[in-house]
Amino acid sequence: xxxxxxxxxxxxxxxxxxxxxxxxxxxxxxxxxxxxxxxxxxxxxxxxxxxxxxxxxxxxxxxxxxxxxxxxxxxxxxxxxxxxxxxxxxxxxxxxxxxxxxxxxxxxxxxxxxxxxxxxxxxxxxxxxxxxxxxxxxxxxxxxxxxxxxxxxxxxxxxxxxxxxxxxxxxxxxxxxxxxxxxxxxxxxxxxxxxxxxxxxxxxxxxxxxxxxxxxxxxxxxxxxxxxxxxxxxxxxxxxxxxxxxxxxxxxxxxxxxxxxxxxxxxxxxxxxxxxxxxxxxxxxxxxxxxxxxxxxxxxxxxxxxxxxxxxxxxxxxxxxxxxxxxxxxxxxxxxxxxxxxxxxxxxxxxxxxxxxxxxxxxxxxxxxxxxxxxxxxxxxxxxxxxxxxxxxxxxxxxxxxxxxxxxxxxxxxxxxxxxxxxxxxxxxxxxxxxxxxxxxxxxxxxxxxxxxxxxxxxxxxxxxxxxxxxxxxxxxxxxxxxxxxxxxxxxxxxxxxxxxxxxxxxxxxxxxxxxxxxxxxxxxxxxxxxxxxxxxxxxxxxxxxxxxxxxxxxxxxxxxxxxxxxxxxxxxxxxxxxxxxxxxxxxxxxxxxxxxxxxxxxxxxxxxxxxxxxxxxxxxxxxxxxxxxxxxxxxxxxxxxxxxxxxxxxxxxxxxxxxxxxxxxxxxxxxxxxxxxxxxxxxxxxxxxxxxxxxxxxxxxxxxxxxxxxxxxxxxxxxxxxxxxxxxxxx
Length: 732
Ligand SMILES: Nc1nc2c(c(=O)[nH]1)N[C@H]1C(S)=C(S)[C@@H](COP(=O)(O)OP(=O)(O)OC[C@H]3O[C@@H](n4cnc5c(=O)[nH]c(N)nc54)[C@H](O)[C@@H]3O)O[C@H]1N2
Ligand SMILES: Nc1nc2c(c(=O)[nH]1)N[C@H]1C(S)=C(S)[C@@H](COP(=O)(O)OP(=O)(O)OC[C@H]3O[C@@H](n4cnc5c(=O)[nH]c(N)nc54)[C@H](O)[C@@H]3O)O[C@H]1N2
Ligand code: SF4
Ligand SMILES: [Mo]
Description:
Layout: E1 18-25, E2 34-40, E3 45-50, H1 63-66, E4 82-83, E5 92-93, H2 96-114, E6 119-123, H3 129-143, E7 148-150, H4 157-167, E8 184-188, H5 192-195, H6 197-209, E9 214-217, H7 223-227, E10 230-232, H8 239-252, H9 258-264, E11 265-266, H10 268-275, H11 280-287, H12 291-303, E12 307-311, H13 313-316, H14 321-334, E13 344-347, H15 354-360, H16 375-385, H17 400-408, E14 414-418, H18 422-425, H19 429-438, E15 441-446, E16 459-462, E17 471-474, E18 479-483, H20 496-504, H21 508-512, H22 519-529, H23 549-554, E19 558-559, E20 586-587, E21 606-611, H24 627-630, E22 637-640, H25 642-648, E23 655-659, E24 664-671, E25 679-683, H26 690-693, E26 710-716, H27 719-729
Parallel strand pairs: 6-7, 6-14, 8-9, 8-12, 9-10, 11-20, 12-13, 14-15, 15-16, 21-25, 22-24
Antiparallel strand pairs: 1-2, 2-3, 4-5, 4-16, 17-18, 18-19, 21-26, 22-25, 23-24, 23-26
Helix pairs in contact: 3-15, 3-20, 3-22, 4-14, 8-11, 8-12, 8-14, 11-12, 17-19
The chain binds ligand MGD (2 copies), iron/sulfur cluster and molybdenum atom.
């Protein structure tokens, strides 16, 4: 007898007519999947496939990677440079020289009139490392503004700051291969299956081969929490209390690795003293996690032969983001879980090249983990670039989150946005809008002309995107991998590298310095600049001197450090227990938790939590136009607890207004038990939505906004009016 399928029409995959495949690394998230882009006979990029022998993804891609070829010719791409006067009238299409001349002359005018730092540059985690390095050279060595930062302040700043405070240097010490060795994995504020699907697949594969406990700390019952062995639904903003309490139990029950602490750490006594106050009974009241569960988790973690922690924005985007990271590092140091297979503190990075900017862009200092505060480093880089070291500031300038207030106060008059969209992605966007209105001059450099922040631009530079360009990305596990120019840039768009080089030529200093034309030449410069000595007298960890483009391609990406003469890269940092502080020891940090968030109260009774969904990337300049992404998540919505919705008379799919002390936004209700009774969760991908409402108090160390903790109330709205507004706002 014949059943089912054989009677149905078979699924037919359309033959896309691929005649050639070219190599690239995915341009969305920091997982760093290696792929090939398929070209048809006319040279159009028509599809992608995972690279089977790539160590990161072994042929896998997620929904964004699979559909990525579509972003190259998506609607809204910028095709020509644009200019307009200050009343934001019609854009005029202009040639590149006019747009570049205008920008250089406006920057010079503003700097002469108001001082060098009155021009601010805010960049990204999404251009190529060679481009970052070049932008840094231009910003630090030619334009000479100290108000130069990136959107990584919204993203990885707390991880960077925490790594520096604990280990003496930035740089995630672990790697994905640790999943194959660990005996316990604890994840803080990370929804891995949706945000890093291929890392999650690596974890799941490892766990299927060899069962080990996975513990997920997240206020929501995320997909990751559903998959976990233990879920700790923590009260928002209280991870440091949990971490201090875990340390309390570990010390109190004699589970700490005392040898490791004695040999490799400072600060043990202060930490021991402080965490005495964080007994599980007290911590349970603050974190909402049962005291026995805290003890249980501490024992499982400390007794595992090797245990590792991963974390993402639930930790970083908090008023104690940096402390939370140091708390995780403390946990791993006191259990001897740094630098060993399966034992590590691995921050899961965000954007495709958030690592590249940390390493090479000079945003927070000078290239290759050098610091502006260090006279030796200023001299070294100055000589290498041909810049008088006295031209460099002696400490870093404003962070992205302080640049916008400085525009408000009139300190900053001109702004250059490179591949970032703050009008949608910053907290409290009403305030950002007002700041942008105050600028005397604004230039937006983006691959998509419909990026919302361009509403306030006087000049628009249409950039080429991703695999239209040549260079490298670095992923979460320090793996440098290649992006090759798969197709020609669209229309009159230009690679960011070209734009930086052309702008540099418009300054006398830029003409005397070297600004190489090709990515390969820039990579050679970075290679030459990378070796050096760390504060401990040992070689600095960020060293690419053994890499070249051929090796990067043939090995499908290589993890730094790879020193001159090495055959390949290095899987783990700190395997010898020598850290990047002068005495080589890591720091255990005693950190008190402060209750300083906006919290629900009688006027604003819900926690506002925000984040992402699998189908969309950030402000949707790309995924909003990819059918197979957008159709699964077409509308701005909130998760609301079913019981809370019932009490408020809110129906499934009804539009609701979110109101905070800052503003309001209308979203569609999705009734679910995924969020607790007093919380709503809203993806941040949509324009004029959750960031009109969010607060974004800043972490004192990293200046990263606490996007995940604010308070709102819910109001009824006219459904027809809301539907109309929704259609208008989300045109594509
Ligand atoms: N599909 C997709 N993937 C992406 C991105 C994307 O836009 N779309 N963006 C990339 C980028 S740049 C980044 S930074 C990463 C972000 O990746 P993730 O950080 O994994 O994503 P988020 O959804 O922002 O937040 C993760 C979780 O933090 C939880 N959380 C909120 N408050 C707290 C808290 O106080 N404590 C704890 N422990 N958890 C809390 C939230 O409930 C949420 O489930 O994703 C990357 N990957
Ligand atoms: N409420 C809330 N807000 C958040 C977050 C949250 O969890 N909740 N998360 C924060 C985080 S972690 C992040 S990383 C930020 C992201 O915030 P943004 O960086 O502002 O958002 P993106 O949409 O990624 O903006 C990147 C821009 O670069 C452009 N682009 C892409 N590739 C190229 C290129 O090669 N060249 C050029 N010139 N342009 C290019 C894209 O078109 C896009 O407009 O959002 C933050 N905002
Ligand atoms: S997991 Fe990240 S890097 Fe891999 S295909 Fe998906 S978006 Fe791209
Ligand atoms: Mo991010």
